[in-house]
Specification:
This protein has 129 residues and is mainly alpha-helical. It contains seven helices and no strands.
Amino acid sequence: MAEDADSLFEKGLAVRKEVLGEDYVNRSIAGADEFTRTMAEWSTSYCWGALWARPGFDRRSRSIVNLAMIAALNRPHELKLHVKAARKNGLSKDEIKEIFLQVAVYAGVPAGIDSFRIAKEAFKEMGDE
């Protein structure tokens, strides 16, 4: 049975806050305007409410997949955010390193190099150097 949009949004908002941190999510929501609000609501409802809240794949595993895909797609802002989330979801720095080495082989060395640089920035911001 399909969930309604409000239910997906509320579920997604809760998961998003757990994974990305309440402060980040609150700032993101507060920063949405008339132009960006629909995208913010969709990503909260469908990425976080419909996908991340599904059973069958734990958050740690979802973080592994996200890091590889986002690194390969060269999305630096999202990558930094998801490196921090991956640490919160239980991935070690060494596991993140291995993911980015694999990205370098399969998606290209420049993607791997950028991923390492972005992860290093994320670790520093987290006080996790």
